Amino acid sequence: MNPESGKNNIFKVIGASSLGTLIEWYDFYIFGSLATIIGAQLFPADAGASALINTLAIFAAGFIVRPFGALVFGRLGDLIGRKYTFLLTLVLMGGSTFLIGLIPSYSSIGYAAPLLVLLLRLVQGLALGGEYGGAATYVAEHAPVNRRGYFTSWIQTTATGGLFLSLGVIVLTKNLIGASDFAAWGWRIPFLLSILLVGVSIYIRMKMHESPMFTKLKAEGKVSKNPLKESFSKKANFKMVLLALFGATMGQGVIWYTGQFYAQSFLENTCKLDFNDSRYILLWGIVFATPFFVIFGSWSDKVGRKWIMLSGMLLGIIFYRPIYQIFLDDTDFSQITQQDVKSVSVPVIAKEVQAGDSLITQKSTVVLVNGASFTSIKSLTKTANGKVLDSTELMKDKKLSTTTFWKFVGLVFFQILLVTMVYGPIAAFLVELFPTKIRYTSMSLPYHVGNGVFGGLVPFVATLIASFPGSTPLTGLWYPIGIAALSFVIGAIYLSNQKPDHGEITESNT
């Protein structure tokens, strides 16, 4: 084979696989990126904080079913092939995302709205459970054995790329139609757009050929007759499945979802940052960090996968609490003095009389000398004779000074850098653990349990823990820190830094 032709072929494979996978991640993540707004549409207006927690629970449901999708579509992938299986997952994902954009709000159909969205999220989760394993396996089975880390790391960029695309479309749509229209109906546009993206990806994937290793296996009549049984009933293989889960993907999952999703949720909902600021910070962090997926993936071909992944977990364990404490400290405007204030807008005053008492709300925009600003909402309860019973002030929609903004970008970049360390090498690591005939099934399950259950629950569990009486805003971080620490210990003791040898070669090496 002409080496240059082989190289061009593998990049065509990567391009076709990555586009579809990126779109599936986009479809899956726009829901999480819009959790606050969607919660207001799916639940009663007086639901308060429970609307966000319930919406995050629906978001998490899509992660919980991913392992079942891994079993269903992994089995299909090992029986009929990689190509047609992840074509099916793409159709299911795109159709579900499009339909979410059409679901009426709670005000129109009541609790049927969140139930219908939950059903579609479950379909999304099942589809994603079959997508990633297929794409990673497909690319790995086209790649030279000694460069699997490098070539599969391109697939790894698609998860963060899908998040970047979802954030970009959301911010662009909101800025074009305005905040009020976006909250009312414009949030549906990113969901509806996905049908166009999926159509393009299906067209490209239809032109792909089956992986050479699976084709060879099929021609020789060696395709597994029962991938599930071979994956999980054989003691040696099941041991590798468990080791992959508890020593690698479990820790990798919580690092991924803390560094990207929980970071955004924390900045928006705990620190009360402006909608655009919280997303711009994440967008810049993604832009700066994304190349490191390929860097760490390629490096793992030279030094092994294990210690790169475990180092990412260890750094998260050490630095998460200090980073999130900085987020809190630098967005705490409660101690500002008159000298810090540059201007205050004329307050918009609303008055509501209830049982002789008056609730007076004063809303104004405060601009600080350093360029930061926030919306101040002061609430006073007065009796009929003018006595003030209580007074509270809420600061929201905070915009950071330029210096603090780029400081936050740096902190989010560091978190996503840890994501690239644990995520860049992991596709090659999982592919190499299992033989070709049961690879799709065997690698998909630990990946989607680790990411879907342990990782995907980070925003929901951490937010829920932080809402318990007596907790602090940082209490929720003990969940990802604890999971990462457990995975680090198991991986350090039991994982090997050597590639298993299944006696397989790829078409690229022949």
Task: Report on the architecture of this protein.
- The chain has 510 residues and is α+β, with helices and mostly antiparallel strands.
- The chain has 2 domains: 3-331 and 401-501, Growth Hormone, Chain: A (Up-down Bundle); 338-399, N-terminal domain of TfIIb.
- The protein contains 21 helices and 5 strands.
- It has helices at 3-33, 35-42, 49-64, 66-80, 82-100, 106-109, 112-140, 148-177, 179-184, 189-206, 212-219, 227-232, 235-270, 275-289, 291-303, 306-330, 402-423, 426-433, 439-455, 458-466, 478-494; strands spanning 341-344, 348-354, 357-368, 373-382, 388-399.
The CATH fourth-level homologous superfamily of the largest domain: MFS general substrate transporter like domains
Assigned CATH architecture of the largest domain: Up-down Bundle
Mean pLDDT: 83
How would you sum up the global shape? Answer: globular
The tally of strands reads 5
Q: Structural class given helices, strands, pairing? A: alpha+beta
Radius of gyration: 24 Å
What's the domain count? 2
Could you state the order of secondary-structure elements as H and E? HHHHHHHHHHHHHHHHEEEEEHHHHH
